């Protein structure tokens, strides 16, 4: 699977602290290799059809959808990101 970053995701990512971006890069590599990696804690977002969330840390998460050959990265940010999606 490949990663497709939306414009909004790219803006969110660039606004993150450098330390968090480094962790994001590592977690996205896990996603490409194994969506069930335990540290990602991937789960479906109930109120947004076809959207999943993954964990970066206790404070940060990312939202994505699944296309036939790619994970489409929608948003990334603090845990209130669902309120902004």
List the helices and strands and how they pair.
Blueprint: E1 2-5, H1 7-14, H2 18-33, E2 43-44, E3 52-55, E4 60-67, E5 70-78, H3 81-84
Parallel strand pairs: 1-5
Antiparallel strand pairs: 2-3, 3-4, 4-5
Q: Can you give a write-up of this model?
A:
This protein has helices at residues 7-14, 18-33, 81-84, and strands at residues 2-5, 43-44, 52-55, 60-67, 70-78. The model has no long low-confidence stretch (mean pLDDT 93). 33% of the residues lie in helices and 32% in strands. The protein has one domain (2-77): RelE-like (YaeB-like fold), CATH 3.30.2310.20. It is built from three helices and five strands, in the order E-H-H-E-E-E-E-H. A five-stranded mixed sheet has the order 1-5-4-3-2. It is α+β, with helices and mostly antiparallel strands and 85 residues long.
Keywords:
85 residues; alpha+beta; YaeB-like fold; five-stranded mixed beta sheet; 5 strands
């Amino acid at each position: 699977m490949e990663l497709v970053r939306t414009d909004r995701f790219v803006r969110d990512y660039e606004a993150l602290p450098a330390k968090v971006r480094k962790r994001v890069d590592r977690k996205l590599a896990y996603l490409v290799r194994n969506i069930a990696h335990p540290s990602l804690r991937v789960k479906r977002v109930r109120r947004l059809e076809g959207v999943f969330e993954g964990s970066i840390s206790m404070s940060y998460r990312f939202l994505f959808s699944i296309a036939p050959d790619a994970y489409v990265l929608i948003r990334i940010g603090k845990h209130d990101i669902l309120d902004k999606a």
